[in-house]
Amino acid sequence: MTTATRPLALIYDRLTRPGPSLLIERLSDCERYAAGAGWEYKGIWIEHGPHAHSATDRPQLDALVHLVRVFSHARPVICLVSRWDRLGDEASRAQLQLRVREAGGWCATVGGASDRDERAAGHAVRRPIGDAECHRLRALAPVAPPPFSEEI
After folding, report:
1. Over 80: is that where the pLDDT of 43 sits?
2. Does the pLDDT at position 149 exceed 50?
3. Residues 41, 30: Cα–Cα separation, whole Å
4. What percent of the chain has pLDDT above 70?
5. How many Å apart are CA 6 and CA 38, to the nearest integer?
6. Predicted confidence (pLDDT) per residue in 97-128, tens digit
């Protein structure tokens, strides 16, 4: 695998409780997993405050999805989380995973689960998403990502 084709790992989490110790542990797990998988680690996106508890208002995920869209034309891009619940509950998780997939990437956990292949064990979406469900989820997703000005 060359540097140009090495997958990019974009680490995502939510700070839902006071105190960063568990967050730091989860992020360290993600960094180690990405390194062990041979992925190029590109940064961390963390939701804070009310955004961490919202099913739809996730500015950090919006920024991450924007980068997935930018980089996925040239190489694989993964939204890496420590566990599926770091994205949200099952209903919001499916919607957020769909946003990442539609941008050209996929989601994975440090436990080895991935939604890259719907037939893979550990797929977080337990049933195939039909056209009607895709349209419903798209309607709930933000229309445009926020501007991103920081260089990676």
Report:
1. yes
2. no
3. 9
4. 74
5. 7
6. 999 999 999 999 999 999 987 544 333 443 44
* Domains, the chain, with CATH or none: 8-140 (3.40.50.1390)
Query: Both tokens of residue 61?
Result: 């995920």
What is the rounded distance in angstroms from the CA atom of residue 145 to the CA atom of residue 83? 24
Would you state the structure tokens that stand for residue 128, as one six-digit string?
């195939």
SS3 assignment, position 88? coil
- Cβ contact 46:11 at 8 Å: no
Phi-psi region of 43 (alpha: psi -120 to 50; beta: other; left: phi over 0): left
Tokens representing residue 126 in the block: 């337990």
Residues 6+ apart with CB under 8 A from 147: none
Cα–Cα distance measured from residue 104 to residue 98, given in angstroms and rounded to the nearest whole number? 10
What CA–CA distance (Å, rounded) separates 60 from 47?
Answer: 6
